Amino acid sequence: MAKLASKQHNKEEYVAQRIVQTDEKLPILQALPLAFQHLMAMFGATVLVPLLTGLDPSVAIMTSGAGTLLYLVLVRGKIPSYLGSSFAFIGPIIAVASSKGIPEALGGLVVAGLVYVVVALLIKAFGTTWLNRVLPPALVGAVVIVIGLGLAGVAVSMATKGAGDTLELKNVFLALVTLGAAIAFASYFKGFLATIPILLGIVIGYLVAIPMGMIDFAPVASAAWLGLPTLTYPKFDLGAILIIAPVALVVIIEHIGHLLVINEVTGKDFTPLLPESLMGDGLATALSAAVGGTPSTTYAENIGVMAVTKVYATQVFWYAG
Questions:
Q1: What is the per-residue pLDDT across 198-219, written as a single tens digit (0 to 9) for each?
Q2: Do residues 38 and 84 lie in contact, with contact meaning Cβ atoms separated by under 8 Å?
């Protein structure tokens, strides 16, 4: 089996029959579709947060990629993870933006990112023993469940409702087609196709949506070939900071939970890298907010992709970023 696995990198056969470990290198033509699949997995939620909060989606996408690369640098390319927009900050951002302004909300997010950094330094200095007492696994698991259930409602709403916030049967049909295609590719196909079921599900759903009249190409046709996102810079207001910065503690708990899940999925223990992991997430959040982007968090969607495909190579996340 070991010889067979080593030969697969030199052949057109793909690696779906085995686990691809975090430090393995894949041929670029195999790694790129996997990277694009991770992009598609994070895209919807990453764009939805700025749409709900009044931030620029283009900046959010740009800082998501840059933040992921920064994260991978700080964890020395060892933890397979992608950073996208955090939903935990939506309420506080909207509250501050409506009462004070977007720049003040961004200032609060910069400070929130620095809270991550402070906690990371404390863990680096004193270890994780105290953290296990303050944040027992049961608490971490409960927080991750609550966040996941909250996002489930958003997913169901997006899959079933139209522009008027009413039930649209064609949306339900398209969502079921996309989901069914992804499940079919993951369950019944072999080789290359079995490793990109989510990407293929999206492609099938998109192709079905075209004859249903649900795709409008006019905005794409009229858009400029090249463009730069509009950057917005933070202002620091104590009231805004006091509203937004404490939410960082919730996201830190979520981050720890995600790292524990990554440990389970990959079969490796990345807990010793928790300080670097939190540091990467915090700096990514602070730098994103410094130019008008959204706060970041490690994405459960991408962890789910790894669990389905068994491809854990961090090379894929470098390409995705």
A1: 889 889 999 998 888 888 877 7
A2: no
Strand stretches in the chain, DSSP E: 83-85, 296-298
Cβ proximity of 75 and 281 under 8 Å: no
CB 113 within 8 A of CB 283: yes
Q: Among the listed ranges 14-18, 112-116, 185-189, 197-201, which one has the minimum average pLDDT value?
A: 14-18
Handedness of CA 247, 253, 257, 260 (dihedral sign): positive
CA pseudo-torsion sign 70, 76, 82, 88: negative
**Average of per-residue pLDDT across 20-47:** 89
pTM above 0.70, yes or no: yes
Rounded to whole angstroms, how far apart are CA atoms 23 and 6? 14
Q: Under a CB-based contact definition with an 8 Å cutoff, are residues 67 and 83 in contact?
A: yes
Give just the sign of the alpha carbon dihedral 140, 105, 69, 126: negative
What SS3 state is found at 311?
strand
Domain boundaries, the chain: 26-216+234-320
pLDDT in tens, 252-301: 988 998 998 899 889 899 989 999 999 999 999 999 999 999 999 999 88
Residue 110 CA to residue 249 CA, distance in Å, equals 14
Q: In angstroms, what CA-CA distances link 104 with 62, 109, 178, 286?
A: 21, 9, 40, 13
* CA 81 from centroid of its chain's CA atoms: 8
C-alpha distance from residue 273 to each of 30, 78, 259 (Å): 28, 9, 10
Residue 2 has pLDDT above 50, yes or no: no
* Number of continuous H segments (helices) and E segments (strands) in the chain: 16, 2
DSSP 79: S
